[in-house]
Structure prediction request, 474 residues.
Amino acid sequence: MARNNTIRLYDLVLASGVTLSPFVWRTKLALKHKGFEIDGAPTSYMGIRRMLDGSYRRLPVIEDDGKVVPDSWDIAEYLDATYPDRPMLYRSQAEKNFARFLDGWMWKGMIHAWFSCYTLDQVKLVHEEDRDYVLDAHQNRIFKRPLEEVVADREQRLLEARPLLDPLRDLLTHSPWLAGDEPNQIDYIALGNFLWAASLASHPPLAKDDPLMDWLDRGFDLFGGIGRDPRLYPLAA
Amino acid sequence: MARNNTIRLYDLVLASGVTLSPFVWRTKLALKHKGFEIDGAPTSYMGIRRMLDGSYRRLPVIEDDGKVVPDSWDIAEYLDATYPDRPMLYRSQAEKNFARFLDGWMWKGMIHAWFSCYTLDQVKLVHEEDRDYVLDAHQNRIFKRPLEEVVADREQRLLEARPLLDPLRDLLTHSPWLAGDEPNQIDYIALGNFLWAASLASHPPLAKDDPLMDWLDRGFDLFGGIGRDPRLYPLAA
Prediction:
């Protein structure tokens, strides 16, 4: 059980070494919430097939004293089930349902909108060995046109996308964290989605006076400033 | 404290006597969840100003042994705070946040879409004394065109609106109720929104094989079949 209080985290990172995957970000926050040290095993998209006998196609995967657990949802369940004496990531099935609903809503709205604004950043920022794969996936399979065209009007689209987050702003007028007085996995999932954006956002999506920034700042300050990596872009300007 | 275990509920009803307001529906379910008998005080829109010295503009309002509490959100808080020994409507602030987020999402999506499909039903079904008020509000202030035109293509629009509810369908593959193994106010809020629709839906919005129907059927069966009033329309056909 977590020798030396440490759990290994296989992490999908950019060439700079900073985490890209929103699913890894939420898992990082979850591991810290449970009080573990993280033994980071960063890799590229191509590297996923070179690790753990090529058994996995997606990250995160954690390894806890030999036990391997993939999938950020399953990892959160595993951590709560295996370490119930440590701070819980969820207090009820309703909270898990909230997390799932909120995450689905963010993917359909914010992430969908922002993804097309930062596609070219992603191609530029991934590891050299990932570049052709990401370019092909985005240009030929997702957008089916040159990514320079896709991002051309992004400043306008980022402005127009801001109201998409109003329901989150409204919620944060009712409690300091999405989970109440203290953050839990509900916040970490949402924060992880914003940290994904911060890994790519060469043009900031939000305004400095956005009421979301208070929660984002508090979230990025958690666990010794987990979202304060200088390789991340600011989300507001 | 709830003499005879009974709480008075001021209720906004249609001419048939069946509850219209989604906020009253959720409060009815909440009162039953807390184990109270309901002393119903049904009224019309016009009647709201004749009750309780005309102090309130909206329903529900409850009266618990002389203590008057308006607003469905505040009523739920009041019930949990005053009767913590009875089944709780929420177990955490995160669950309240989920309820608020889910409700906001339903209003922007499903209710917005369905409201325009059932506007003419509402005009027809309200109390005689409410008819001019509702007709004026809907025709002149909300839609700004004849309601016959607004509802003309509703069968098609109801079909097209069905995918709006996919996130709810997805959630219900993960647990039997939105709140987990047992329903709480999260479910009651969502069910109350569907019961609003059932009070008006002369053309059913859903298909009989909609996976939502299992949850809706279980929800409408609660508390001795609270949603099985023969004056309600079926939501699926």
